[in-house]
Amino acid sequence: MIIITTLAEYQTRFWLKVGLNLQARGEGVLFLSFDDRSCDMLDAAGMQNFNVPALARRCLRETALNHAEVFSRFGMDQINYWTSHERITFSITDTATLNAKLAGYLLAIDEIVAGLEDRRDVCVVQELGGFLSVIATWFVARRQDLDNYFLEPSYFRGRMFALKNSFAAPVVSGDATQPVSAVVRSYLEEAIASQTIVIPKKDRHQYSAALAKVLNTQNIKRAMEKIIDKYVLRKHQEFGYIWRYISIHLRMLVNAFRMRGHYTPFERLGDFVYFPFHVPGDVALTLRSPEYLDQLALVEYLVRMVPQPYKVAVKEHPAQIGAVPAGRLQQLLRQYDNLCVIPPGTNNYKVLGAAAAIVSINSKSGAEAGMLGKPVLVLGDAFYKDSPLVERVTSIQELPEQLSKALASGEPPATDRFAYFQQVWEQTLPGELYVEDDDEVKTFANSLLAFVGKAA
Q1: CA 119, CA 139: separation in Å to the nearest integer?
Q2: What DSSP designation does 151 have?
Q3: 339-341/391-392 β-pairing
Q4: Integer Cα distance of 42 and 21 in angstroms
Q5: Do residues 138 and 283 touch, judged by C-beta distance below 8 A?
Q6: Contact 49, 31 (CB under 8 A)
Q7: Which residues neighbour 257 within 8 Å (Cβ) at sequence distance 6 or greater?
């Protein structure tokens, strides 16, 4: 049996198709649903599913354990770390609320898994994420000795990593002697020639201006539907923090407006070190590299230690224009004349090509820069951190010295940089999350079975 978590309707539409495909091949499928409408959808299709939030409320009422005792039962410590993603994403300030939600989910999911008649050939499949629903499911899988596979998009468009029993980034160290297939070489050469970044299909709607997101009729319609569901029909939504989402997008619109007039085209910068902003609050920061969650603090450190006469150039993530607080960024611009902000719509490949060096936490921009042969310093938990194309910074105190060396040495030694990406290709399989095309679903299901060791 394959246990699948689903947190929202758009996810369930996709996972339902995958589940039906798997069932047709004789695989057992069980859904852990964290959304009432998703439960209705799965019930209508005859798919086995559990409404975890409803079950969690009952478990909390009936348990004699306090939250700390529940966490101890599942071997959890550093609770503030595990609840940090949800706290940041939804602006939740009440620790007791987060603890209750996490404890309830742990008890509910554990009861579901313990009730399975046979757990010898059961595994869990989830999209990588930092929400308490995902985290609780992972801890239960650990306690019940089940393998948990986290799926996340890879460097290559239309391919994905499957991370077994870990939130950490996959390890792809690289091999300079690896023969490069014609497919991989062609893909990389085309990426360099076209200068296009890799955008998973599920995220393409995010790559638009802040005003376009606010005025998008589909977004407005969906917000109204969610308001009715929550306040009139009283249906649970795992992502039901509607006013939080609305306020975020309005704040992004204001920030984007405030930053107008503060941009400097990279062509006018001279020599510069480039730091591409990562998506604020993404699991890549909250769980994988939490020490760098405050990216503006890192930027201020960079401008204070970068060698003269280099400038530090930053650019917002194109999917989150306006997400960086404009007030703090403008204060840094006033204080440091060696800091510049590049217009967010600028082609990232062009900026990477012009930069003297790139500093990345764990952004895919670091891998793209390595592919281009640029000096790259990697601070966080990235899949390419041990590759021969970058320099890993193991301590923030070492960054000044390593950056000075990278700037003095120029481009890294000549090597077949594509050989590393052949390794990346071989550690992934074709498929994309939340693409509902029938052929894409079939491809995804084939890869899922291969990842979990059930492929024929």
Answers
A1: 16
A2: E
A3: unpaired
A4: 14
A5: no
A6: yes
A7: none
pLDDT tens sequence across 283-331: 999 999 999 999 999 999 999 999 999 999 999 988 788 889 999 999 9
What are the distances in angstroms from CA 171 to CA 164, 350, 385? 12, 28, 8
**What count of other Cβ atoms lies within 10 Å of the Cβ of residue 222?**
15
**Other Cβ atoms within 10 Å of 441 Cβ, number:** 21
Q: Which of 153, 158, 187 is nearest to 170 (CA)?
A: 153
Residue 195 CA to chain centroid, in angstroms? 22
Contact 429, 451 (CB under 8 A): yes
- Give 67-78 as a DSSP string: HHHHHHHTT---
Residue 437: Cβ within 10 Å count: 12
SS3 state at 118: coil
Helix (H, G, I), strand (E, B) or coil at 156: coil
Residue-wise pLDDT for 195-241, tens only, equals 776 555 555 545 456 566 556 677 777 777 777 777 777 888 787 77
CA torsion 395-400-401-407 (nearest 10°) is: 120
β-strands 429-430, 159-164 pairing? antiparallel
Instruction: Report the Cα–Cα distance between both ends of the chain, in Å, rounded.
Output: 16
Please give the full DSSP string across 15-38, using - where no structure is assigned: HHHHHHHHHHTT--EEEEE-SHHH
Cα–Cα distance between 328 and 299 in angstroms, integer? 11
Cα angle value 389/404/278 (rounded, 5°): 55
Residues 75 and 357: their CA atoms lie apart, in Å, by 42
CA–CA gap between residue 449 and residue 258 (Å, rounded)? 49
**Whole-prediction pTM value?**
0.90
Residue 141 tokens read as 């899988």
Are 363 and 289 in contact, with CB atoms under 8 Å apart?
no
Asked if omega into 413 is within 30° of 0 (cis), the reply is no
Q: Are 277 and 324 in contact (CB under 8 A)?
A: yes
| Structure confidence at residue 214 (pLDDT) | 58
